[in-house]
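Feature request disguised as a bug report, sorry. It would help if multi-protein outputs had a clear separator. Right now it looks like this:
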Amino acid sequence: MKEVYYIEIKRKKSILFSIVLTGGVTFIFCLKFIVQTLMNGINGSPLYFILACLAFLFSLFSLKTTLPSILNKKPALILNRDGITDNISSGLFGLIPWNEITHVEQSTYMRSSVLLIFIKSPDQYIQSITGLSKNICERLYQDTGTPFAITKKTIEMSFEKLELLIQQHIKS
């Protein structure tokens, strides 16, 4: 592949911004409620305290998951002569050399259109990641046969064009 293709992430900044704003406001109110409750003692039902703690954890999770995607300026995928550089999938596998890719296919997984990219040694890639991402990739591998899937909603290029580009390089 002589050309380099940069496939951009679809960014719906207004949606992401509203999630971050909602998460941030929820975070502040819940933190205030939790601190006041701890300082004054639990008056009334402990259920409110538990719900505030759960909302606090949810807001932390929403901030952690959406802020990086707003601030990330990297392309989702880079296709060049070396292979595919992954900056978008659950595993964030980095560079996957062309000789590691066996084939690609479009599919539906958990009600989403995905492009499955099959690789020769998936266990090696799965072992290179940790935490929740590793669990997601292991489950994806069990269900589809590959840990590497790109969701249609996350990239600007059509699946058909991306699939064609990858297949052309695999065959050459």
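(second protein starts here, but nothing in the output says so)
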Amino acid sequence: MISLLKTRLHSHKTFLNNLGLNNLGLNNANTIVKVGWWRRSFAIFIDLFILDICTKISVYPLHKGLNELYDLDIFSFLIEVDSDILRVLILYFISYIIIGVILSCFYFIYFHGYLGQTIGKRLLKIKVIQIDGGGLTWKRAFMRWMGYFVSWFPFFLGFIWVVFDKDKQAWHDKIASTYVVRV
């Protein structure tokens, strides 16, 4: 009976591995392989590139509307700076920041909470897990996203911290009690 269970368990693990669904970050020795700074940096670069495109698409109607309203072309602000052009640029910049933060909130919380990995992490075959090895909850994904601001504020020191930390955790990982591991 026990050998039958072991055989079935092994076949299920093999099946999940073949599908790429064994996302617990375990290597062949069943130990967690934590990911360092370079791989994480490339993943966040991919994610920020995706978010930048989505934000620009979202802000484009405002940009087009403001250009038509004030009859501006792309190089107007280089020729002369008056109060109308300055107000338009400030409004566009503030709108871009607000929409970007809202999109990043939904992007990171959804992908981390639902899949444990964003598109960038998926492409680089890494995943975020809780310290106990389980998947992220929505609450923990939100805490991790809020921790990005803590990691970002003092000159990105919280992100760079991965290089010096024995557990390869950034500050936002420590806040949310998470690891980034290989899939």
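Even a blank line would do. Unrelated, but nice: Residues 15-23 have pLDDT under 50 and may be disordered.
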